[in-house]
Design a protein that fits this description.
The chain is of the alpha+beta class and about 170 residues long. It has a single domain (about 5-170), classed as Heat Shock Protein 90, CATH 3.30.565.10. It has helices spanning about 10-20, 40-55, 60-80, 115-130, 140-150, and strands at about 5, 25, 25-35, 85-95, 100-110, 150-155, 160-170. Helix 2 runs antiparallel to helix 3 (about 60-80) and helix 3 (about 60-80) packs antiparallel against helix 5 (about 140-150).
């Protein structure tokens, strides 16, 4: 699958027809590269909203998945990549048996953390207990994604860095 630069994503009126080019039958798959800067967050958020609109995802579930994608992206920008380096977000939506949707979102940064370190950090945060953990920062990724997504996972990126992903099945 080709990687599309965020700069090549069209604005409002042409976005839906552009997105339909990434659909194969009832499935959607896209990889998007973007500079590691919070200024890209609104465009990524809007893109994910439009993808989920194509599949008629309920407002409640759409908002939850956008929140998770924000958390994945913000974590990569804040902790995973030097400003102005490239990050990547992959979005896949697949229709499965019974009319359910399987949604997978992955964000890849290019920092020195690896999957093993993220698993260790998650276990440390789990041991503290989210309800007892009062830090303003440092728990959003785990807390938000685990309450919304079916699965949160970490894997080493193909070249350099870390991929953090979620999976969610919507009925």
């Amino acid at each position: 699958m080709d990687v599309i630069s965020i700069e090549n994503i069209p604005e409002n009126t042409k976005l839906e027809s552009f997105l339909r080019d990434f659909m194969d039958s009832e499935n959607f798959s896209m990889k998007l590269s973007y500079t590691s800067d919070f200024s890209n967050t609104p465009k990524i958020r809007f893109l994910i909203e439009k993808i989920l609109d194509i599949y008629s995802v309920t407002l409640k579930e759409k908002n939850r998945l956008v929140l998770v994608s924000d958390e994945l992206n913000n974590n990569a920008v804040e902790h995973g990549t030097w400003k102005w380096w490239e990050n990547m977000i992959s979005i896949a939506v697949n229709k499965i048996e019974g009319g359910s949707l399987f949604v997978k979102i992955e964000v890849t940064d290019n920092w020195v953390w690896d999957a093993h370190n993220m698993e260790r950090l998650k276990k440390e945060k789990d041991a503290i207990g989210f309800e007892k953990h009062h830090s303003i920062r440092g728990r959003g990724l785990f807390l938000i994604t685990e309450r919304i997504a079916d699965r949160l996972y970490f894997k080493d990126a193909d070249t350099w860095g870390l991929t953090v992903g979620i999976e969610k099945t919507l009925s």
